[in-house]
Amino acid sequence: xxxxxxxxxxxxLKKMLGxxxxxxxxxxxxxxxxxxxxxxxxxxxxxxxxxxGNDLIGRPHIARAIIEAGLCRNTxxxxxxxxxxxxxxxVPKPAPSSEEVIKLIKETGGVSVLxxxxxxxxxxxxxxxxxxGIDGMEVFYAKHNAFNTKFFNEVAITNKLIRTGGTxxxxxxxxxxxxxxxxxxxxxxEDLERARNLRRT
Length: 201
Description:
Layout: E1 2-4, H1 11-36, H2 44-51, H3 59-68, H4 75-83, H5 98-107, E2 111-114, H6 123-131, E3 136-141, H7 146-158, E4 162-166, H8 187-200
Parallel strand pairs: 2-3, 3-4
Antiparallel strand pairs: 1-2
């Protein structure tokens, strides 16, 4: 769930982000423990170096360390063999509930948007999020085909949701073919700005 126009100084938001930060660190430790069981030894010190100054550790940092160790060719290879679902190093990401996130985004004056709805692969979850009050969704997603875009566009219009777009680019060479080459319609900026102005009135 993406958040736009929120108050970054909100105390409850800072608390939630702090819990997420701690949970990511603990998850990374659990992943490294699982990898050790299959004789892949990566140090937490190196993972933190790769994460940089914010120390917000994610699976891509662990993937990079595995590539450095010469155990895989690229990030996708790491996820396919070790870090993806049903792989030996997979640990679910700790996260607050969707209801909590949507509620808090609204309380901070922000606009909540469902990222890449296609990846949910569940209409049931999609409509649950709409019931919870999500403000919009990424209708224009780089990996959507024409059918997906048409379907989510109709869902958004029917349910009066903001339509946004994105590539889901996270660096490290994953989905590089979309970076700087996929452009959602410019009117999504106007939709977001209208939503922001309504939230502030």
